[in-house]
């Protein structure tokens, strides 16, 4: 399945609209405005929270947790940066960790589980956003929430504007 992620530039916080292959809005990420700068709610179109994203306080480096139904399902942390290339580790419970590697500043990277590419991100032509193509067997909420975190972290470190710090 392919999604398009677009930041809502008119919102007070770091809000995102996520569209499916047919162009219908599938998810909404609410950045909660200025009051809660390091927290995001990942919502379906009925405003039900599917995931909660929060910056991990007092961690070494940049790390965010993704929770579902009150349980941490992933920790996203930046691992390396060299020019426009960097990598992120997505630690999930059990042996199925993911890594994301590529050119994050141009929204062109791959999510891998071991050597298998399970999702890719590419810049959308003529738009404010990026596409994320996810294998059917993967959890789209986990991958899309991770992609939003990566976008916000790389935008902040790359000098692009963001309230998420």
User: What distance separates the N and C termini?
Assistant: 30 Å
Rg (C-alpha, Å): 14 Å
Strand order within the widest beta sheet: 1-2-3-4-5-6-7-8-9-10-11-12
CATH superfamily (homologous) name? LURP1-related
Which structural class matches the secondary elements? mainly beta
The H-and-E topology, N to C, reads as EEEEEEEEEEEEH
* Low-confidence parts: 158-165
Helix content: 10-25%
Return the CATH topology. Porin
From the spread of the alpha carbons, the general shape counts as: globular
Number of helices: 1
Based on the coordinates given, report the CATH architecture: Beta Barrel
Sheet of most strands? 12 strands, antiparallel, barrel
What value does the average pLDDT take?
Answer: 84
Counting structural domains, the number is: 1
CATH class: Mainly Beta
Compute the number of strand runs. 12
Strand percentage, roughly?
A: over 45%
Walkthrough of the structure:
This protein is mainly beta. It has one domain: Porin (Beta Barrel). The protein contains one helix and twelve strands. Strands 1-2-3-4-5-6-7-8-9-10-11-12 form a twelve-stranded antiparallel barrel. The C terminus is likely disordered.
Describe how the helices and strands are arranged.
Blueprint (H helix, E strand, L loop, with lengths): L1 E7 L6 E5 L5 E6 L8 E6 L4 E7 L7 E6 L2 E12 L2 E7 L6 E6 L4 E6 L2 E8 L6 E5 L5 H18 L8
Antiparallel strand pairs: 1-2, 1-12, 2-3, 3-4, 4-5, 5-6, 6-7, 7-8, 8-9, 9-10, 10-11, 11-12
